[in-house]
Fold each of these.
Amino acid sequence: MTTSSERSARSAPRAGVPSRLCSGSDIVRQARFNAARLTVAIALMCACAWACAAADPGKVLRVEFYVAETGFDPVKVQDYYSQTICEAVFEPLMTYDYLARPAKIVPRAAESMPAISDQARTYVFKIRKGIYFSADPAFKGKKRELTAEDYVYTIKRFKDPANKSPYESFMDGVVGLEELKKEAEKTGKMNYDSKVEGLQALDKYTLQVKLKETDYNFAYLMAMPNWGAVAREVIETYADDTNGHPVGTGPYLLKEWKRSNKIVLEANPEFRGVEWQFEAGSDPRNMEIVAAMKGKTVPRIGRVEINIIEEQQASWLAFQKDELDILYMREQFSQVALPDNKVSAELVKQGVTLSRITDPDINYTYLNTTDPEFGGFSKEKIALRRAILMSFDNAEMIRVIRKNQAIEAQYPIPPDIVGHDASYRTSIPYDPALANKLLDYFGFKNGSDGYRTWPSGKPLVWRYSSTPTTRDREFDELWQKSVEKIGIRILVDKNKFPEELKQERACQLLSRTASWIADYPDGDDFMQLFYGPNSHQNNNSCFQMPAWDRIYEKTRAMPASPERNQLYRQLWRMVEVNGVMKLHDSRVRNMLVQPAVVGYRKHPILLADWIYADIDNSRKLH
């Protein structure tokens, strides 16, 4: 999932697995062994009706996004911020246990873990009965129950050419779905009534998915917020603006939306209510949360107000004035709020607490390998890209920009994700001296103004894109400082984040500092970022190399294993050698929490994790 030049939704050629979870074969065993026990547990969770849930309208949670959303159609969005709203409004079949670490997948709209057969080529999901969409004029006054056909329709939408879904490739493996897409391309319209062999509602509450090849990770894809069920009536009613009319079965509904400014959610009165019954394990903080929350029915909070606050100073001041209940404490003021990585004495007096994790993400700068000037795989172009990447000092970036709230990334699969290789060392180190030698050798000469030219004598200008925020301006300055060491002139192009994403998906950006955060905790979610067919989706460097793609396709049918890890290592070395990307870091995510918020803990995968929290108005500071 992408975020601004920071976290992040994603488009992968396959499904996902929570990495810290288990290997593919373990997932199958888990599903079979735990199905009956989980069915009983989920039934108990649903025993309490909405009447006893009583989400209190007087309980208001105030949070911030520091990058604007792009919309709320799950099939169309790929950014962290929009997907957070989707996770609160829509319900995928699966989700994650709120407290379990490492991340543990559990049913959400499904009543149990899926039945997996035919060497993980067939998945059968049983959908819980009595789930209803929130009321909407599209239903013409009727109460609308969630069925298996809603998931059939939702999954087909990813292959509809009209939707241009950044996640289309996730469904490449479903038998018959690609043929449906090709027919739509011929006729100009998707036939949603056409039967697809690999995607069927066996009955009102049973969904069967058949895959072309073994995929141990498919169940985890069904936990992503993008796979929350939508109703066909709603999509057809609001066909001109599906991003502006999210109608789901989740605990919240969209009450107000001022684009790029403010989002307001209210508790969904049609939601069934779920009993909070997560287990603490041996973690002391979890024990406190369980003591405060166990037995309550969620959602507890009646209203969630989300303000778009791009600048760090503004969000920090808002938190200090108790205008925000949860704050992602970004780098600029982290040393004030968290001296020695602990909550400051002043904040402790106010009852503020800290929920801290290392994000399962990578932050990186890419170069578009299809760019007319910088793209291609000639020795000269590869040398130029590698020289640019070698000019950047990650240690300085972490010290100056991140304020030491990050760890340097050497490998594209971050720590705690299945497939991470802690022993790997990059082949693109910080080495401006070697970068200069490379450029000299391949004929990129210094002109009279001190800047290098192309071998033809034409001025060499590197185009770099970023957003008009304080953080990105810091990256601009550091990149300018870096490439000037090797005699390259930089031209920084400024755009809002949503516009950058549009240009990026069209392969129109040469370079950008971007981020990817785990959609599911398996290395495949990160390696798919370089898969050729994912260009115009999540492959933002538009890297296309047939030899790379063939090896990657082999890994897709493999469970997590040393053999797969070895291939991942080979694939990443090929990316580095060709000067496609400079890895920077994985960030520490510090979440400051006001004393009125009860039961909150940052989850490594869930986005709208505040769904499982409560508000105690008696503990508010003002």
Note: Residues 112 and 365 are 41 Å apart (CA to CA).
Amino acid sequence: MRKVNLLGGLSLLAVFAAAPGYAQSVNSGDIRGTVTDQTGAVVPDVAVSVVNVDTGVAKDYVTNRGGLYDTSSIVTGHYQITFTKTGFNRLVRGPVTVQVGFTSVNAQLKIGSTAQEVVVTTNVPLLKTESGEQSTTLEARSMSQLPNVGTDWQNFTILLPGTSGTPSGEAAGNPASNPGQFVAANGNLPYNSMLADGAVTTLPSSSNSDVSTFETVAEVQISTSSFSAQYGIGGYVFNQISKGGTDHFHGSLYEYFQNDALNAKDYGFGSPVTVPFLRYNNYGGSIGGPILKKKLFFYFNFEKLSTEGANTGFLTVPTAAELNGDFTGQPTIYDPTTQVITQTPDGPVVTRQSFADEYGNGNKIPANLIDPVARAIQSYFPKPNITGESVQGTTINNYYYNAKNSSPFTKYFGRLDFDITPNNRLTISDTQRDSPAVQNQWDTCPIGCDNVDTDSNNSQITDVWNISPQTVNEARIGFTDQLNYYVDSTLNQGFPAKIGWQYAKADQFPTTTIAGNCCFGSTSSGFSPNVNAVQKEQVFDLSDVVTLIRGRHILHFGGELLIYRTDTTTWGNINAGTFAFTGAYTQSAVGDNTTGIGVADTRSEEHTSELQSHHD
């Protein structure tokens, strides 16, 4: 199946004041403000020098006739701003922390000489009064000081004001105490858009969105309401801004680990239990610095997640006696080969003779009537490993599984910032992820196990061009994809030949369901192969924004084109065949649920042979 959606948007925002109005950029900062004298009159032609303290890159601006200056899109970080004009003291402001969005830094100059300097070191106020937007910025420094399991900033979304978990999050395995990106804020529906350096990364069909590696995130801006129309959606917006290189080389090494040796056992209610197997190692390193001094900077991160956990639980599997056809103490079973149909006024009545009456050997199926295909299938069933419980003569919960699973995850991230000219900056960032794994449900591999590989990528290129002091163009291309491959572990392993199954429709283990307590009857799929499927999702994000400064007015206009594409096979597109055993074949008569056993049907040559013939 193939699905392609095209979403186009055009947003126009006119601002008739010097400061108000949301920034036009969604992956960088913007410093703007008005310069006045001590009387409050605007001062034109003031030289404004903006220096990135982290990289040393400097940019120069001049206030216009309205005393307004606007840096437009600049890399987030720490800046020092110097205001200079003949006849006034020179004013130095900073370091000022610039986050995603715009930061207002106004200046009031005092009459004097430029040789005299006034230095203001206070940062900009945290409370923004220029717009009604409700947003929170999670900074890397703050998040690194909070307790965290692993390297995932999503663990902190529940700490935001007015947030709570959602049913959709719980359905996806995210509890109310840690909803991640399924959080609801201030009563909003749990719909969101995830951005990475300004480019959309939320996938079209699954709505999945890979979050950036914790080590690579400089900040996450979470906008919950009243944000700019440029985002084009309701709900809320997560905008992940990556780290970049600075004018000095910096690096880091890190590891997060967990181990079952540090954990306690669950209470077993009289049954032996073990501590679930757990090995968790999340390690990596990063390095960043200059390639060309004050022009070209890089940042690179490698991260490896090695997780070995376990699924644990109880299931019912056939006992040795049941595998040999002995159902002593259980409901009476009847021989389907002795079936007699008697015509009555109320219609035909089916009756059968019990094995006990027929052979005088108790509630047992003779060995010569046990089907060889059924015997071969059940040889793959796990053997009982605990005593279990006895219910109405039947042993249940006699198999405890501690199925180990490994989920390795490799991530690469890179970013380049290139000041091509003083008026043209290029930012490129790319994240590559690969997660091959084996899904082990009940420790019965290859039956019920899946070979899974998820490969994903998200990247963006942003070009900011200061065409003139009054005109700035910002163009961005973003691309995200996620490729999911699911391959059943029994596929193409020759299982039909191994079990003597003549009528298989594919080289795969058959789907086997058995009614009743026994033999994986409590599972939704029975003792069966796992899924086969391929799903590929892609997002193309093209946008362009132009900023015009006219007097004391700032005008932003632009558009965004989102192209969503999904290519997928039918979920579970391979089925070699299905054996379903309900107990009907070993009942005394059709519909007599007090007799007959599902697992006894599997021993019957009559029933298994008929099921095989249905696949001919």
Note: The longest strand covers residues 296-315.
Amino acid sequence: MSPTEMNQTQPQAPGTYWRSLGQLENSEEFQQILAREFPEGITEAPDEVSRRGFLGEVAASVALAGMASCRKPETKTLPFTKRPEGFKPGIAQHYATTLTRNGYGIGVLAKSNDGRPTKLDGNPDHPSCPGGGSDMRLQAELLQLYDPGRSREARNPHSAAHAHEADAHGGHGGHGAHDDHEVDVWQEFYDWLEGDDGADLLNKQGQGLHIVMPPSTSPTLLAAVGRMKAGSFPKAQFHTWTALNQDQALQGAQLAFGKPMAAHYDYGKADVIVSLDCDFLATEGDNIKSASQWGKRRAQAQDLNRLYMVESIFSTTGTAADHRFRTKSGDIAGVAFALAKQLGVGGGSDLQAALGAHDASAFVKNGKNWVEEIAKDLQAAGKKGLVVAGATQPPVVHAIAHAINAELGCVGETVTMTQVVDGIASDCAAQLRALTAALEAGTCEALIFLGANPVLDAPADLGFGKLLQEKKPKTTIHVGLYEDETAQLCDWHFPMAHDLEAWGDARAMDGTYSMQQPLVAPLFGGVSALEFLAFFNQDNAGDATWEDLPLGRDTTFGYELVKQHWQEQTGAVDFATNWWPKALHEGVVAGGALAAESAAVNGGAIAAAVGSWQKPTGMEVVLRGCPQ
């Protein structure tokens, strides 16, 4: 009986409920709707095919498709026939190595479990990490090593076009494609270097070749740059660029002493510390060492020091300060001038006259003039006082900080001045402007970026990204951990090896040499800046040749380059049997620390800078490096 017939014949019992007026009226239109909703035979498939039969045929087709696919891959697990010396499965091993930060080396002890680095701690024998200290950024290096967002394959215009074509046909292109037309980017780069374009650069002695790289204190890398300048590419131009540079600090030393100098502070000896926008406990300077010194002194309950913080943002150092004064970044120069005036800096000279216009009365908190209170504390501390300026402050603030420390007699006590470590530039911004000028003039023919991303972090007024698009050189190459904004505008891209995947060396802020050895082979076939430059310059070292690099990036080339450099530098007779193994074992090379130097403060130059300083007006935007 159909639903319609049921509705027609079923009597309406008293109290029966209906779903709609249509059901109550039982009109012809309602009967048609009811018939369409529940048609006869709806539960059976057409053409006399049952539901069970249909599912059986689908299951059979899936089974047959599985039989036609690739069989399960076979992997054979083989035990060690000859176990590496000192290796025991499941037992951690520790290696001394070096990580670089802002160009300087930080000594670390790396823990390795079954061939994979798993933990990093400071090397207690390295001056940057007294007592084995560490910080969050040091621990985060492991996260970067295993970051799934790292660049995984090389790319050039040919491979990019091939990948696009393969995607259009439903395939997989790129360097790792499994087809008959796989693009070997490294081999094509070798062919480019050996071809007409590479020969043209050689014939021009590198004229038109520009290389951008961050600051580096690596002796081996600097030696490779020197070989390029003295050999095949004497007209090539190298540009040092990083957004987190030391331009202001070094230019401030130039203003104060007549030459760039590096200041080293001992926070453990200081009784009173005044920080002018300097986050020395977390993000600036030799922060691991600084935090260790300051923390040990604070742990002495009978002899606490006092920390004053004048800053524009809330920092780690501001959190730990005894007194924190929130001040606009552009007003901190006025604070420095007023403090110097209260301390009598430049007495009887042009500097004192220039400081006379800056009064401390403008700085009041809770009814007290806090600049005067700080000045009293510093005067009482004398040579046990210390004033430091932040990296983002203008050079005149750094110069005033040096003048205050000299007035208090801190130099030689809480402050040590040395020359700047080789490889640290004091004019990163000027060097990037020089590259911008070359791009605008069209004289840049080949442009190489080694671990730099100026498209993202160059000053906005340069318009570097737009300029690179509009005035793009004939050849653009990028080597980096990520396929970042600069890489996306370059024709060639190569993955860069992480510090834990490459051989190298570096110098600490005090000049101490340290060795860098890999804990694991490059996970994504990356190369270090040292290996890339040596390959480009066609250098050979030991048993490794530059021609081997396209065949495999297994760190052998970098190892031979570093070892050969140090063998030539030391000239040790027992280099292979004693010097080299000892350097790798300890991670530190003795005898590299810079000697302290004395320098007189140039009050006249500082006075001119103070006199020309103008207080910023309008809205203030402060850009800082991410502590992560």
Note: The chain has 24 helices and 19 strands.
Amino acid sequence: MGIHVLRPQIVLILIGLLSACSADKPVNTADSIYTGGNIITINDVQPAAEAVAVKDGKIIAVGGLASIEKAHKSESTQIVDLAGKTMLPGFVDSHGHAYMIGLQATTANLLPPPDGTGKDIASLQKLLTDWVATHEAAVKKVGWIVGFGYDDSQLAEQRHPTRDDLDKVSTEFPVIIIHQSGHLGVANSKALEMAGVTAETKNPKGGVFRRQAGSQEPNGILEEYAFFYLVSKLASNFDNDINDVLVEEGTRLLASFGYTTGQEGRAMSTGLSAMQRTANAGKLAIDLVAYPDILEVENPNPSSSYTKHFRVGGVKLTIDGSPQGKTAWLTKPYHVSPEGQPKDYQGYAAIDEVTTNNAVDKAFANGWQILVHANGDAASDRFINAVRLAKEKYPDVDNRPVLIHGQVLREDQIDEVKELGIFPSLFPMHTFYWGDWHRESVLGPERAENISPTGWVLSRGMMFGTHHDAPVALPDSMRVLSATVTRKTRTGRVLGSEHRVPVTTALKAMTIWPAWQHFEEKAKGSIEVGKLADFVILSDNPLTVPEDKLSDINVLETIKEGISIYQRPVDVASVPSPAMFGTTQHVQHHEFGTHSQHAHSDGDGCFNPALDVLINAINKKVYKTQ
């Protein structure tokens, strides 16, 4: 066979054709392109975009649709139409308790309106008895009846329930109800008996067993470490199945509110092990960063990288309690002292100064990040002093210490916080849930104006985070946003107008600034090339809706590294997320979405009705995230 030699002209034509084909084919083909809605990037250099291209879970392009399609679209690229909705970077949890959120989502819901129906003691009793009637297997397995979220400040009686009130629910089983703050609780007579708490039992250090009037007999109300002692008795009845599902369902609940990074802000050994097991089993849909209690966990082993969506970020220390529960440590007396306390009552520290200083020193010595719970200004003084001592001893350590809550920060303390490089993770959602209570009973009109003083922080050019502290409240991202912007109480009063901030600032405090808090600002917190494709899709644009409607915005979808992990069911898309978890067993599992083969969490932003963790654990029904 002879060899045919192509003419030079034909060779040039073929080369030109091949070059043209090569030029038309994208070099970096996107898996998906998001467009057709409002894209808020939280990037000051490029605040908005028409389209975002994603490949292998990361953002590869942000900008105009035409240019992105030309450079990154192929036949296999999926075009995700936002249909006029709004997309932002996924929310980063500045502070919460993912493990305990699982408990919140699986016990009798005692929250007051608008998140529940616990408006008086009679309604609490009914909620508990109704829950027992529908969860007999769970009660028999665990041996306890548990309710979460009652709030004495919102009860008609304006008092805590007592052991006598809970004895009307059951005298056969121990009953414990957890205050919405997570710092107090109430036990019935059976629970006190099983825990060995009697008139002779002394108060533990950093806690109080409240007593019946005129005697030493416990009335069932437990504060701080007295309460934690009883909770440990409850938790001892949980096996690995229950603990693991608590983690899984807690992170699912976070995802339903748009969080793609969750936090367990005070992990104990049992919860830490459960988080690790859940991650190893591939059951975490979002990233989860844990901070073990430095006084309880000897070797936390922090890491800067995630393994199967889990890492330990540092350590946690708790100095005082809750302002709404009146256990936070103040420098001035409470406006109205709690029952049985003198008029000059100022709360108390949960740990002493030596313990505080040693813990902070240990964190700095090891280069660990430390989160410190300090609500009262006296507690904040102690933390500030401990950081100052540690920085003098370890001047080159950059561990970004975090002040958690800082509810009663004074303005002079803000300057010290800035000087020492302490990141304030604040709690402006308190203005809605407990603003009226702070004004009328906790702090009085003057001090209440300045709770969670975001205005003072912002005026000094500082970053800050805003959080939900769930299960203290639902991890409702839109309630966090609304409260940070409007600072309106339940009765509509604006509490501290100088601390209201613009919507753009409030969004940064839920995205890029807490990403910085966690040393993750290069990977999360904004929609930029090279960052993870972590997104949340909202029903409305928070930059354009009236401020008093921010809390009505719904999370429609949550996307983690390009994979849709939650979609709001169509049949509840217009319902304003009342919390009804823990009252109805729910075992149906839906498939949602047009661009993912993965299963989604089920719920309407608050798991309504919720997956019952205890029932699931008994029946080995653990839903998979992939």
Note: The mean pLDDT is 87.
